[in-house]
Amino acid sequence: MRPLAAESGTHRPALPRVLVQARLWLWSNLFGSVGNTVLTLAAVAALAAIVPPVFTWTLSNAVWGAQPAAACAGIDGACWAFLHEKHRLILFGRYPFDEQWRPLAATALLIALLAASAIPQLWRRWLSAAWISGLLAGGALMWGGVFGLAAVPTKLWGGLPLTLMLSVVGIALAFPFALVLALGRRSTLPMFRAAAVAYIELIRGVPLISLLFMASFMLPLFLPGGVTVNELLRAQVAIALFTAAYLAEVIRGGLQGVPRGQYEAAQALGLGYWRAMAFVVLPQALRLVIPAMVNTFIGTFKDTSLVAIVSLTDLLLATRQAIADPLWRPYFLEGYVVIALIYFGFCFSMSRYSVFLERKLRTR
Amino acid sequence: MAQGDLGPPPRAPLWRRREVRAVLYQALLLGAILGLAAYLVANTLDNLAARSIRAGFDFLGQEAGFYIGESLIRFEASDTYLRAFVAGLLNTLRVAALGIVAATVLGTLIGIARLSHNWLLSRIATAYIEGMRNVPVLLQLFLWYSLITGLLPLASEALEIVPGVFLSKSGLTYPVPEAHPIHRWLLALLAIGAGAAALYVAGARRRQERSGRRPPLLWPCGAIIAAPAAAAFVLSGAPLALEMPEWRRFRYAGGDALTPEFLALLLGLGLYTAAFIAEVVRGGIQAVPAGQSEAARSLGLRRGLVLRLIVLPQALRVILPPLTSQYLNLTKNSSLAVAIGYPDLVSIANTSLNQTGQAIECIAIIMAVYLAISLTISALMNWYNRRIALVEH
Questions:
Q1: Contact across the interface for A316 and B22, Cβ inside 8 Å
Q2: pLDDT at B277
Q3: Nearest CA in chain B to A342
Q4: ipTM above 0.90?
Q5: Cross-chain Cβ contact B134/A210 below 8 Å
Q6: Tens-digit pLDDT profile for residues B63-100
Q7: Domains of chain A, with CATH numbers?
Q8: pLDDT tens digits, residue range A121-177?
Q9: Domains of chain B: total
Q10: Which residues of chain B lie closer than 8 angstroms to A330, CB-CB?
Q11: In whole angstroms, how far apart are CA A294 and each of A289, A290, A315, B34?
């Protein structure tokens, strides 16, 4: 018996410390009151009803590996053989089969650049150089026609690289435009303010799909006869124009967060408007809204799935094409679940990153 | 040196003066915008002439020639495009309104669950929120639609969830009250009741200001709203019995049904937006300082009153603006209906566009309608927001 309990005879024998803590935790978090206990039991019952069937479906009853579609007939579980058969189509769309190492390399490059940009210690000038050369290299890999790579028209691009490219290039194109819009909205010149407000409110008031329709049906009418624009580029521009309106509002939030004194001090130093903005105000304003910009990027990443409606073979449409195969049609759930996990992986990690960043920037 | 010797201070040359530059820059901007517009219009007119498409909204009067799967108003293929657009708009408003109600109820519950002291419950709520909002809503719509049309049984072997309610590949069939002419007036009567309730609330507020006593609001209002409709229903002798759907060889007779497209869209939009609303509600409740509810408790208010009179009104102030933007997002996302074949405004516009080639007009209609909805809702919400805003003297 431990000495503490021995000293006072009235005490019950002391439980080990861990057990005491566990009991306290259970009491305060799960079973503290009647209502709480009922909630806990209901939650446990709900989990018991949901988790085991999901487990048997995904794992124990599933068909794995290289199997024909017939092997999945009549089973009460996931047909992962479907993915074995179709993963190349889902990930890379209709990109020529033997050349698919190229979109793979381009995707890896893009993800590596995104990961590197997530580390604040690497926010140096060379990072933008790395981005420019990375995007050029990625473009060269995808397009081909140089270094002995066979040329692949954009019509055949698809899958994950297309989704990533639409969102990364979309936000990159949107950023300078958004900057101009945000400055315009804060301008003292009424005409600039009116133009920026009109653009931002117009774009934020309509759904993205109407812009994508506009890009695919109306743009050809806007251009001089005979000029055609690549379909992928049209959708890319629509996404960028759409994102710019939202990003502009984020940046405006940052501009409003910079104290007036900073603007005035910059003026008092004799800096003109552009220099005051470039060297004093914007660096502070943008820093304030980096987390919000990451969230905008998450939105753009999810929104790129809408290009499936205008027939661009992004991750979503490629999956639908895989499901459309009559042999594998019953296994749509497997396909949707897997790309949902891919989307979730990207978006969730970015949103956790944004939370981390917010905390880090606030403590500085 | 005397100051007078300097003469008038040297003035900056004209082109360096601030006012001059302001005018100049704005003129340049205006010129650029007008120039771009003129260029686009000229190109468009050329292109339309080359394709022999007549610009303008005349086509709205023509016969549409297509069917609409479901519609709140009667629609035949021989009706005009205009009527088709109206049917589409009503379908958009219908799914958006129901979606907003569903998402608000579910989102509020999940937001509160996330703040629960119950560890398990708050973890489940968090998992729901993160899972839902990190997957594109279009993917979720496809998933729901495929689940409904792929995994549910055929209509002839429908699942009977509760007696009279059947769920199958062809949607959700449910009983409705037996038909009676009074039904078409009920909505108007409810509106009259709502108007009377608003008058009662205004009167109650005046009484409270005079006497300091708080007249009951919730129950009288409910009664006043329901009274005219209920009275009319009873007095007209409308049957109380329900018309049960019945399986007749190929389809259900009686009752009413929600199509799989509508169900998928409602589920997808509602569940997706609920995750965002949950975060809005959580943020709002957390924004009310704990001191507020402690102070109210120490004044002797009961727990329910603390929530109703102290915490919620303050939380609402924080919740309302982001909640409005979630409502607008849901309405805009309802345009994804086009992907699963629910005949909303965008689907109708898309079909009309493909049939007539009037791309500019059809897309302009989509944009104008959504813009009008967005501006109306945000104007209403701004008005309401100003009314409940904190007045600081």
A1: no
A2: 94
A3: B135
A4: no
A5: no
A6: 877 888 787 888 887 888 888 899 999 999 999 999 99
A7: 3-59 (no CATH), 152-317+334-363 (1.10.3720.10)
A8: 878 888 888 888 888 888 888 887 777 777 778 888 888 999 999 999 999 999 999
A9: 2
A10: 150
A11: 9, 6, 21, 35
